[in-house]
Design goal:
Two copies of one chain form a homodimer.
Chain A lengths: L23 H8 L2 H11 L6 E2 L9 H13 L3 E6 L2 E6 L1 H7 L3 H7 L5
Antiparallel strand pairs in A: 1-3, 2-3
Chain A binds a DNA duplex (30 and 30 nucleotides) through helix 3.
Keywords (chains A, B): DNA-binding, Transcription, Transcription regulation
Pfam families (chains A, B): HTH_5
InterPro entries (chains A, B): ArsR-like_HTH, HTH_ArsR_DNA-bd_dom, HTH_MetalResp_TranReg, WH-like_DNA-bd_sf, WH_DNA-bd_sf
Chain lengths: 114, 114
DNA sequence: CCGAGTGTTCGATGAATATCTTACAGTCCG
DNA sequence: CGGACTGTAAGATATTCATCGAACACTCGG
């Protein structure tokens, strides 16, 4: 067998937005949600490309979860890649931080969600 | 006549929240609104205690405006004081920046609102 | 080729909230 | 005191958006 990172997905590739093209308003709106904050925090605590969408501990169904990831992609916060039947994620730390310095750190550092 | 900064208002004093008591989620939610971003930016460009609530160039009625200032107070972003019939404002730069370093700068520095 | 697993899409629902209109409560000036 | 001005409060409306359930699409392993 050759590849296990199956590069030949026939599925619709997820639509990504470059952080450079994201407005402050979009970025803040994406981060102003408790579920998405949890996703980002868990993602930050995991190795890159190791977390599939369904592997997060959030109290919502998979439809809502799919929606949240769509918002995060649209804000340039998350990158996704198909790996077999799963869709694995990566937090775009450097790229997002270059566009909005300190913003991601604020969300990750805070100990409260309230 | 003694004082022109009339400290004896018989009106209900505005309720303020210390930035230290504000959660990240509350802060982000308060900032994730185009009208409130404009208010904050105009406020940042003006001298302290010079802008009354009605003096801002935003496309909403005064009732909605009053609501927005209430949200900004609740997020520890704005301080208000009664001065005669007017209510003048101050951006709590240092205090808010101590709680959320860099966040206010991001909103003020960005050239887009989209 | 079937079945389990994973994620998206669609339509509907419900909650949060931004807004307006109207009414009211103060402050100041004549 | 009465009227102009400033802002708040309350109620109604509308829009946005988070959520769910169900149906669908794709991948992989028997």
């Amino acid at each position: 067998m050759a590849k296990q990172t199956a590069g030949a997905s026939h599925r619709a590739a997820p639509v990504h937005t470059d952080p450079e093209d994201v407005s402050v308003l979009t970025a803040l709106s994406a981060l102003a949600d408790p579920v998405r904050i949890r996703l980002i925090r868990e993602l930050a605590d995991s190795a890159v490309w190791t977390r599939s969408c369904g592997s997060f501990d959030v109290p919502v169904g998979k439809a809502a979860l799919s929606h949240h990831f769509s918002v995060l992609r649209g804000a340039g916060l998350v990158e996704q890649r198909d790996e077999g039947p799963k869709r694995v994620n990566r937090l775009r730390r450097e790229e997002f931080d270059a566009r909005f310095p300190g913003l991601l750190d604020l969300v990750l550092r805070a100990d409260d969600v309230e």
